Amino acid sequence: MTAQPATAPWDDDPAGASILLATGRAQHDLLVIAEPFFLTDLREAWGRPASSVRLSVLPGVSAPGLAGQEDALHSYERDGLGVLIARGRTTLFEGKPARRTTAFARTVAARVRAALLVTRATGLGGADVGDFIPAGDHLNLAGTPLFATRGVVEAGWDEGLTARLADLDGVREPGVLALAPGPLRPTQAEAGAFAALGADGVVTDSVAEAMALASRDVRVAGLAYVDLAADRPAATGRRAAERRMGAHSAGLAQTPAPDVVSAAVETLLVALR
Q: Where are the domains of the chain?
């Protein structure tokens, strides 16, 4: 893997000094980025964090704007390992530029060893509602650079961490995630095209964050929860809109599996010891 230059064009805090100041910890072993609902089991099991801060106090980072996301960053210590949990993220379809959507990842990269990014996906082909797809690869179909650099870089999902996730109950074999700009779910025609390109699911976030981290030598793994299958007829109208909103908050459309995410975090911590 070719590491990105120490200071890239968009970097406001390349050394991650703001993470040190915010948490009091120089290095965390694992970063987790996920919406709060996926983190309910962890929060109940782990209790109060060692420190907390708003994401939006970090240089260049915007407060998450989607319903159900939190402007919160928590730091924990688990058996000698540091875990940093971001309870929200900023997406392109909020109207924010790519510089904003990757600001946190680019700032935190110098202060973490590995990362788990959890998101939601529209399933393609054999992916059913309720499945978790570990990210084995991705297609960037967002129509924009993921982040700015001063040269071409190489970055990808960590095969070792991904294999550990694939061994968990409730998790499929690693698949390919197609990054689309959103906010619309893929149409039947788009879903067919994405599937023909080899995609197993369509996401609207996480890929840019993950690759910004990976390009800075952070080991990155991803889990995409399938909350809608593209080959199923979609409901329309106000009730459908409410269900889609719930998919980003209380899981009203389909109930995610926070226990899978909790198991994934614990599994990766074992791998990092």
A: 17-272
Quick: pLDDT tens for 8-35.
Answer: 666 778 899 999 999 999 999 999 999 9
Contact partners, residue 48, CB within 8 Å, separation at least 6? none
Angular region, 231: left φ>0, alpha ψ -120 to 50, beta rest: alpha
- For 119, the token pair is 């998101």
pLDDT band at 154 (very low <50, low <70, confident <90, very high): confident
C-alpha count within 13 angstroms, C-beta hemisphere, residue 96: 20
Q: What is the topology classification, in CATH, of domain 17-272?
A: Rossmann fold (3.40.50)
Q: Are 134 and 116 in contact (CB under 8 A)?
A: no
**Among 87, 79, 70, 91, residue whose Cα is nearest residue 31:** 87
What is the C-alpha separation between 103 and 89, in angstroms, rounded?
A: 10
